[in-house]
Amino acid sequence: MLRALWNDFVGLIYPRLCLACQEPLVSGENHLCTGCRAELPYTDFHLLPPDQNPIGRRFWGKLPIRHAVSYLRFVRHGRVQHLLHELKYQGQRDVGTALGQLYGAELHAAGLAADFDLIIPVPLHPKKLAKRGYNQAAAFATGLSDGLKVPAGLTALRRNTNTNTQTKKNRAQRWENVATVFEVDDPAAITGRRILVVDDVLTTGATLEACGAVLLAAGAAEVSIATIACADR
Fold first, then answer.
1. Which residues have CB under 8 Å from 56's CB, separation 6+?
2. Start-to-end C-alpha separation, the chain
3. Residue 108 · residue 226 · CB < 8 Å
4. Residues lower than pLDDT 50 in the chain
């Protein structure tokens, strides 16, 4: 009783805010308010047959993948863009962890947890990691690990080149930018395992394709892909 009263008092002075809309959260809400939870543009791609999954089709003929899923649709100037901006540029790593937990629970409920042995985030170069202070994909991977009950290998992949931003590049330029920049830190930890590679946003898929190719070359049994959001091409 006293703890609840104290929490209510603290909440009046330092209200917890929804990560998407910045409105105060009420009792029982965590990370996202009920309104945003209801209105976020979910993809539900994990419920589709593989041949009907538009994310999976982006990798046809490029990379053999088991699952390709994305939690949300990226909509410019909407809640999703705000969430990603908070995650990448405002130091709000909890955004990635919270979304990972929510999505991981959904994937677990859909029976997908049994298809993964290890969750690996797309790595940042050490210089960019030092500047940002954390890897946003690793925050998402940590949340997914919690929701899926599948271990995460946060350092299993290494980025050996500090590439330029992908934002304004076309698909060919993006692939050229990342084709040879990733390395597997410990191949023995990869061999024979079913890997879920995760990132924040899927656009052309060049970065995830490069990571998946390296993991398969290192002996991974199969590769799947998951992102917080996907952008229309």
1. 45, 50, 65, 67, 68
2. 52
3. no
4. 4-12, 166, 174-175
DSSP structural state of residue 42? B
Q: Which two tokens stand for residue 139?
A: 């925050």
What pLDDT is recorded for position 99? 95
Residue 22: C-alpha distances to residues 25, 33, 84, 131, 166 (Å): 9, 9, 14, 25, 28
pLDDT at 1: 52
Pairwise CA distance, residues 24 & 196, whole Å: 34
- Rounded CA-CA distance 221/204 in Å is 24
**Structure-token pair, residue 219:** 């002996």
Say if strands 68-73 and 222-230 run parallel, antiparallel, or are unpaired.
parallel
State how far the Cα of 158 lies from the Cα of 102, in Å rounded to an integer. 27
Could you tell me the CA-to-CA distances from 3 to 6, 24, 221 in Å, in that order? 5, 20, 49
pLDDT at 51: 85
195: nearest Cα among 170, 164, 172, 217: 217
